[in-house]
């Protein structure tokens, strides 16, 4: 939903609603899945499972941020290079003055400052700003769609989650074995 509603105006109610849905869904899903994993583990390993859960959460957050950031910047660079070379108002001489190998998300004011140091005419500056706006928006939309596709892949490992409710959690075999050995050692002492 966010990929289809995002625009250059982040105050749009649909964009705000989409951001709220993403935040609530991520928080609820992570909490639910990780709590199911901890509760389904043997009680003797619950501490280790909880620690691994925290590590997996932090690692996935860091990797997800890095991957989507690299994707967004890569898509932005490709879009700007393609759109700028194909635009009739942007001559190749101007493109040589701007380093298209180091493209990043910049505001219109920052782009205006960069182009002020070149031989760009006001019409060329206006065309470059229009290209920048369109490329930024398309890069964000593409990144959100790819991220949604990756998130949908979570259905595969979710199929391996336990299929019982907390009231149906079976008695752990390790707990039975520990109770049996305690009874045996108590009987041998007596």
Determine the strand fraction and express it as a percent band: under 5%
How many extended strands? Answer: 0
Uncertain runs with pLDDT below 50, 5 residues or more? 176-190
Computed CA radius of gyration, to the nearest angstrom: 27 Å
N→C terminal distance: 69 Å
Instruction: Please outline the major beta sheet.
Output: none
Our count of helices gives 8
**What general outline do the C-alpha atoms trace?**
elongated
Helix proportion: over 70%
SS content category: mainly alpha
Q: Average pLDDT value?
A: 77
3D architecture notes:
This protein is mainly alpha-helical and 190 residues long. It has one domain. 74% of the residues lie in helices and 0% in strands. It is built from eight helices and no strands. The protein has helices at residues 2-5, 13-40, 46-86, 92-97, 108-116, 122-152, 155-158, 173-189. Helix 2 runs antiparallel to helix 3 (46-86), helix 3 (46-86) packs antiparallel against helix 6 (122-152) and helix 5 (108-116) packs across helix 6. The longest helix is centred in the middle third of the chain and has 41 residues, at 46-86. It starts with a helix and ends with a helix. The model is unreliable at 176-190 (pLDDT under 50).
């Amino acid at each position: 939903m966010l990929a289809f509603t995002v625009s250059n105006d982040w105050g749009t109610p649909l964009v705000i609603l989409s951001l709220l849905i993403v935040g609530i869904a991520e928080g609820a899903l992570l909490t639910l899945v990780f709590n199911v994993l901890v509760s389904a583990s043997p009680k003797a390993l619950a501490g280790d499972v909880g620690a691994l859960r925290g590590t997996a959460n932090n690692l996935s957050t860091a990797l997800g941020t890095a991957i989507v950031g690299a994707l967004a910047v890569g898509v932005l660079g490709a879009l700007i290079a393609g759109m700028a070379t194909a635009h009739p108002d942007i001559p190749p001489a101007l493109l040589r003055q701007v380093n298209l190998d180091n493209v990043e998300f910049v505001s219109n004011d920052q782009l205006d400052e960069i182009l002020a140091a070149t031989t760009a005419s006001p019409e060329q500056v206006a065309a470059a700003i229009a290209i920048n706006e369109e490329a930024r928006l398309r890069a964000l939309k593409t990144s959100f769609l790819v991220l949604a596709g990756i998130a949908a892949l979570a259905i595969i490992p979710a199929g391996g989650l336990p299929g019982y409710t907390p009231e149906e959690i079976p008695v752990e075999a390790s707990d039975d074995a520990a109770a049996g050995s305690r009874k045996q050692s108590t009987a041998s002492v007596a």
